[in-house]
Amino acid sequence: MVTGRSTSGQGSAAVGSMRGTVTLELAVLAPLLIIVLFGCMEASLLGADMLTLNDLGRQASRIAAKGATPEEIDATIDAAQTRLDTLRLGRSYEYAPYDPDTGTWGQWQPLGSIGPFNTASDRDRVRVSLSYAHHPVGGRLFDLLLEGSEDDSVVLRSNMIVRRE
Predict the structure, then answer these.
(1) Is 73 left (phi over 0), alpha (psi -120 to 50) or beta?
(2) pLDDT value at residue 17
């Protein structure tokens, strides 16, 4: 009668060898799978922060184009309920005056206030520049890929340019 089992005991040695092979494969592949998992998480969080930063830039440039002062722009950004830490958010507001004689814009100048409005006139360009220090969840794991700084952060930047209405 043929049962398919070895009577010499070599079958159990083959099973033990297979277990060792599986353990070795897991030991080699587990770190790679963890790195891929952290990479996917980091890419998702980095993308979410960049989209949020761009959205804040759009909101800020929209109200700057309508004449909001830098203080009002700051208040709008601070009031936005986002996942970004406003302490790590850099802000810069500038305008380039329009010259109707040449049809060109001049050099960028800091945006200020004149009464209830900003210093940009109609047809001037207004630039809202935001930067955010994103801290990767993997710490220094992806420093080479993300070109992180000494404080383990990656600086994301968003610039929005609109024409003053």
Answers:
(1) alpha
(2) 66
